[in-house]
Design a protein that fits this description.
The longest helix is centred in the middle third of the chain and has 16 residues. The chain has a domain of 69 residues: Orthogonal Bundle (Lysozyme), CATH 1.10.530.10. The protein is α+β, with helices and mostly antiparallel strands and 325 residues long. Helix content is 49%, strand content 10%. β6 and β7 form a beta hairpin. It has 16 helices and seven strands.
Length: 325
């Protein structure tokens, strides 16, 4: 097995030479380090001293703590959110992306059943087709969130998984870049998702989601396939509502908990053909002309498995439709 220890030795323990001051000490001195190291070694067989060496190079990032407290999905409505992702430039570059990588996208669709315009839209929303993958050191981002943001214990788990990614892929954690929340590569996979869903798209023996479009495209398709994407089925459609019985179904769950027939009985009228026994949710968004109502079919729910936001799912869907057209 490749180990981080080999990379540490190769770097000559640069952090020791530099001599980080106490004021800028890394998270290896945090009171919870020993607990973290114990769990890391037990769960992923990454030796304690490797964790110590890497965390000694980590630095607390206040900008990360500031950013995590104000996610865009919770501070704006659809009328503003759509303007970020449904621009002519993003659509045009998405079409160019689909042409450039049409063979890879077709191969991913054949293997996983996810259409090219959906894969491309995810990558377009996440990183502008790989152009904006994030400039934070993932080591700093996840260490900051794991040790100094107890409101979200998920980041403790993600930091452990991040070390495991570096271990399994033979990468240097100190050079791996991503978002303020530790998401990485074209598709912005968090470390646990990387371990679970990233694949080697071109058979070169590596899973490089930062620089290899084949790995990135196939990994996004695999993620959707593993979360239940239904090939050939629709994502969503506009619906009309009447009366007031529909109100108890509005935005009540990301996962479809009604059948189309049940929603129809509540005053929901689809604008396109759909099976009465299909599972669905009723989505309400505030658009530029007021309230919009949408039928969230199962594939809409699958998109929210990538990001648990109705706004996000709608942005991906509408961008994908623009790319397909």
């Amino acid at each position: 097995m490749k180990t981080l220890q080999k990379m540490v030795m190769g770097m000559g323990l640069a952090a020791s030479v530099i001599g980080v001051s106490a004021a800028n000490a890394g998270y290896d001195t945090h009171p919870k380090f020993e607990q973290f190291a114990d769990e890391l070694e037990k769960e992923y067989q990454v030796p304690r001293e490797e964790a110590r060496q890497w965390l000694s190079q980590s630095k607390k990032q206040q900008s990360v703590l500031d950013a995590i407290s104000r996610p865009a999905e919770k501070t704006m409505e659809w009328d503003r959110y759509q303007d970020i992702f449904l621009t002519e430039k993003r659509i045009q570059q998405g079409k160019e992306f689909m042409v450039k990588y049409q063979d890879l996208l077709a191969g991913a669709q054949e293997k996983y059943g996810v259409p090219p315009h959906i894969i491309s839209a995810i990558i377009g929303v996440e990183t502008y087709y790989g152009q904006r993958q994030g400039n934070y050191r993932v080591l700093d981002s996840l260490a900051t969130l794991a040790f100094d943001y107890p409101k979200r214990p998920i980041f403790w788990r993600e930091l452990k998984a991040f070390f495991a990614v570096a271990e399994t892929e033979g990468m240097d954690p100190a050079t791996m870049k991503g978002s303020y929340a530790g998401a990485m590569g074209y598709g912005q996979f968090i470390p646990t998702s990387f371990l679970a869903y990233a694949v080697d798209g071109d058979g070169d023996g590596k899973r490089d989601l930062w620089g290899n479009p084949a790995d990135a495209i196939y990994s996004v398709a695999n993620y959707f396939n593993r979360h239940g994407w239904k090939s050939g089925e629709d994502v969503t459609q506009r619906v009309h509502v009447s009366g007031d019985q529909y109100e108890d179904a509005v935005n009540d769950s990301l996962k479809p908990k009604w059948t189309v027939a049940q929603l129809k009985a509540k005053g929901v009228t689809p604008t396109e053909a759909v099976e009465d026994d299909a599972d669905a949710s009723l989505v309400k968004l505030i658009g530029k002309n007021g309230a919009e109502f949408w039928l969230g079919e199962y594939n809409y729910y699958v998109i929210t498995r990538y990001n648990h936001s109705r706004l996000y799912a709608m942005a991906v869907y509408q961008l994908s439709e623009a790319l397909r057209s």
